[in-house]
Amino acid sequence: MIQDTIAAISTAVGEGGIAIIRISGPNAIAGTAALFQSRTDLREADSHTVHYGHIVHPATGEQIEEVLVTLMRGPRSFTAEDVVEINAHGGVVAVKKVLDVVLMQEDMRLAEPGEFTKRAFLNGRIDLMQAEAVIDLIRSKSDRAFSIARKQAEGLLSKRIKALRQTVIELLAHIEVNIDYPEHDVEEMTTAYIRDQSQIALDEIAKLLKTANEGKILREGIMTAIVGRPNVGKSSLLNMLAQENKAIVTDIPGTTRDVIEEYVTLNHIPLRLLDTAGIRETSDLVEQLGVERSHTALAEADLILFVLNYNEPLHADDRELLDRMAGRQVVLVINKTDLPGKLDMEEIEKRFSPEAIVRMSVLQEAGLDYLEKAISGMFFEGKLDSGDLTYVSNVRHIALLKRAQQSLLDGIAASEAGIPIDVMQIDVRSAWESLGEIIGDAVGDSLIDQIFSQFCLGK
């Protein structure tokens, strides 16, 4: 049982309209009441009420800050414990003064990163999948990523995992009954039952994994490298997509010397854009370092936006880059289409399908809709499902689903090979345990600590 009480600033540190200090635990109400000068005694106040007053220093009685205090009695709170939230004026000094006197109270300590959400999990209010969705809500890079995380936080995906787990546990129970009472076992029926029930579970896992690639992309963004020779419009394209001047643009080749990173959302698709230095042979030492970083970004990218100048013929450097991109996810951006065409389009069209070629004039901001369509078609088969938001997006969940899938496949193979049923039990139990790890059943403390350490302080 949790004995201590935790407190932390739950809003971003800095200037703002208000700042919130969150307190949770057995001493949250009494500890705050000792500091709170008001007409209301918090210890007698109803749950989910807001009270005006001042925070005072416990030793001197000096008024520290004018505040509103929100009281939520457990289990009807985020952590399922008694929770108090102190709304103070925004500002580094004001909120720090309030937190300092709060931490003077008995059994009160500063919360660890993610500890409020961790307590919600440990107290059974949410499962581990829902807890992990909280950090996805905070880090969402697009409306769609936020919607997916919100559905996961509400438990939509957890329900599907729990139903899947129920199918597997019923299969496991059937196997264990036959092990304990072999005189009632019908071998043919058992083998058929194992195969059929395993297949039901495998079909559901396959449905979930089908969304995994899209879900991971929506959660983390597509790492996108903008590459090409100097002065073809790479930085201009970045600025157009970001809708602000992130990169310096000049007519001088080699202006960009380093990799510039920016997150943008294109047609609900989050892109982690990397504007690279122009790739060419150069004697300039600083530019050489930039070109080396461009090659690294090119190797690590999920998507390459290869920019060519419509007003110039293909260069030897262009052809070398084109050769290196075989087998990669590439959208060829033909820029400067507002100028006379000198690019050999026949050679380009021999190398790329029409869907992967986008004609644009970044200067005139023309062709962006075609770029959106090309990227969407490459990663989402042209569209995103707007109705079903039960995407699997977490790498840990994907890995565990694949492990459960393999265990069930091993169990089917064992049953068809005539292997004793008690051996098959191991595979089925392994699948059940893997699915349990997703929602937080039977997970180790070290994994729980690792997951919640990624959260911000105060959440």
Report on the structure:
The structure is a single chain. The chain has 459 residues and is of the alpha/beta class. The chain has helices at 28-33, 92-102, 115-122, 128-139, 143-153, 156-180, 187-210, 212-220, 234-242, 285-300, 316-324, 345-351, 368-380, 395-416, 421-439, 445-452; strands at residues 5-9, 18-24, 36-37, 49-56, 63-72, 83-89, 108-110, 222-227, 260-266, 269-275, 303-309, 330-335, 357-359. Helix 6 runs antiparallel to helix 7 (187-210), helix 6 (156-180) packs antiparallel against helix 15 and helix 14 runs antiparallel to helix 15. It folds into three domains: 5-111, Probable tRNA modification gtpase trme, domain 1 (Gyrase A, domain 2, 2-Layer Sandwich); 130-211 and 392-452, Four Helix Bundle (Hemerythrin (Met), subunit A); 218-380, P-loop containing nucleotide triphosphate hydrolases (Rossmann fold, 3-Layer(aba) Sandwich), CATH 3.40.50. Helix content is 46%, strand content 17%. A seven-stranded mixed sheet has the order 3-4-5-6-2-1-7. The two termini are 21 Å apart. Belongs to the TRAFAC class TrmE-Era-EngA-EngB-Septin-like GTPase superfamily. TrmE GTPase family. Exhibits a very high intrinsic GTPase hydrolysis rate. Involved in the addition of a carboxymethylaminomethyl (cmnm) group at the wobble position (U34) of certain tRNAs, forming tRNA-cmnm(5)s(2)U34. This is tRNA modification GTPase MnmE.
